[in-house]
Amino acid sequence: MPVRCSTRSLSNSRRGG
C-alpha cells in the first residue's frame, strides 16, 4: 500500500510523518 502521512503505524516508521 502507498505510504502516506495518514497510516500512522507504518508512516511514522518509514517517513516519520
Automatic annotation (TrEMBL):
Record's protein name: Uncharacterized protein
Record organism: Drosophila virilis (Fruit fly)
Encoding gene per record: Dvir\GJ25762
